[in-house]
TrEMBL record, chain A:
Native organism: Thermococcus piezophilus
Top-level taxon of the source organism: Archaea
Protein name: TATA-box-binding protein
Entry's family note: Belongs to the TBP family.
Keyword presence, Transcription regulation: yes
DNA sequence: GCTTTAAAAAGTAAACT
DNA sequence: AGTTTACTTTCTAAAGC
């Protein structure tokens, strides 16, 4: 059994796609969004930032949104409701509740142990390690689908997971593989 | 039927034209990097295999050729950084890196086959700096101890080798400046300095003043 | 494939003082 | 030389080129 008691994970970013089920006139929307940017030539959506909750929203004329930078699902719900209230003031009509789908969660974490990344690159199948390009090992977990960046300090970044449970499961699979190839116990000498 | 023939001829024409273009691009890169003939031949072999396996789809011929050159250098332990190749290629480093990872995966170029030990870079840099065999051995000893102490994971091999040669030069009285070692290793002086500080500190090296 | 957004890890880089 | 800012890697959706 893999020991996960020393492993820590922290949510750093959540990305969600949202459908408001209403068409939006972006030219009108920009006027009520304080810190927003809209250059249809370079990007088709309005880029809007909220201070509370601290998120960034991409607003499209189709009534669909992308909300990023949130630290919790609740932050996303609050941001969406806040935007809906603002939109109502310029006459937007909402017949049904918005549909929110969590698309990506990014975690930072710590496995609590140091690693020899050269040793990992040589024996862990399907991992990438190019120290001249990036200091971490890149490991892709098939199920649940996620990618883990593992650094020599034992710190990690897990992205692509759609829930905290999936992120933990992905980390557990990485540890199982590391253990399987005898890459776990080393600490002082390699 | 005639149409079919013509289309086949056109296809093979295009394939031949692409191969000719690829090989001329390979020639250009190989001569500018002064690569040994066996490396150029290996790169050509990798490229033909990539074409045979249909790995060029969605990628530019130039990025795949550059990736094959880089892969051949790694396989044959002829140190060349991705930057050196990117400098003379029309495609940027990011794109060459992507093609490199893609062909590495699909041509079964495992990390083990592609692994170039930091010590493999020592001779290349030492040649360019005109450093003696004694300096090279000293630098390699420093790198091996650094590896055993876990000081190399995640760090740029080029930066580590540059710092090791700099330190070996100081210890063996055959000094090269940080600027000189940084230049041949294609890293900044700041990187040499950072690696130097860490190695001297953690390996308890006594630098004569 | 690209464009834009957010976030962390650790290394390297570049621009200033 | 030291500091600050910024870029490398991973992910994901959106509409359109």
């Amino acid at each position: 059994m893999v020991d996960m008691s020393n492993v820590k994970l922290r949510i750093e970013n959540i990305v969600a796609s949202v459908d408001l089920f209403t068409q939006l006139n972006l030219e009108k929307v920009i006027e009520i969004c304080p810190n927003s940017k809209y250059n249809p030539e370079e990007f088709p959506g309005i880029i809007c930032r909220f201070d509370e909750p601290k998120v960034a929203l991409l607003i499209f004329s189709s009534g669909k949104l992308v909300v990023t930078g949130a630290k919790s699902v609740e932050d996303i719900e609050r941001a969406v409701n806040k935007l809906i209230q603002m939109l109502k003031r310029i006459g937007a009509k909402f017949q049904r509740a918005p549909q929110i789908d969590i698309q990506n969660m990014v975690f930072s974490g710590d496995i609590g142990m140091e690693f020899n990344l050269d040793a990992i690159a040589l024996s862990l199948p399907n991992c990438e390690y190019e120290p001249e390009q990036f200091p971490g090992v890149i490991y892709r977990v098939k199920e649940p689908r996620a990618v883990i960046l593992l650094f020599s300090s034992g710190k990690i970044v897990c992205s692509g997971a759609k829930s905290e449970h999936d992120a933990w499961e992905a980390v557990r699979k990485l540890l199982r593989e590391l253990e399987k190839y005898g890459l776990i116990e080393e600490e002082d000498e390699w | 039927r005639l149409r079919k023939w013509q289309s086949r001829l056109r296809v093979s024409d295009a394939a031949e034209r692409n191969l000719a273009f690829a090989l001329s691009e390979l020639d250009r890169i190989a001569s500018q990097l002064k690569l040994p003939r066996h490396v150029e031949e290996e790169a050509a072999r990798l490229y033909r295999e990539a074409v045979r396996k249909g790995l060029i789809r969605g990628r530019s011929i130039e990025s795949v050729i550059a990736a094959c050159v880089y892969a051949a250098c790694r396989l044959l332990k002829v140190p060349r950084t991705l930057d050196e190749i990117a400098d003379i290629s029309r495609v940027d480093k990011k794109e060459i890196g992507r093609s490199f990872r893609f062909i590495a995966r699909n041509l079964n170029l495992t990390p083990k086959k592609l692994f170039v030990k930091p010590t493999d870079y020592v001779n290349k840099f030492a040649d360019e700096l005109g450093l003696s065999e004694r300096i090279r051995r000293r630098a390699i000893a420093i790198l091996e101890e650094a590896y055993d102490r876990g000081l190399t994971s995640g760090k740029s091999p080029a930066g580590l080798v540059a710092a090791a040669l700099y330190i070996a030069g100081l210890l063996e009285d055959e000094k090269r400046t940080q600027r000189e070692v940084a230049e041949v290793a294609r890293v900044t002086e700041v990187t040499v300095r950072n690696r130097y500080k860490e190695l001297v500190e953690k390996l308890n090296l006594k630098i004569p003043v």
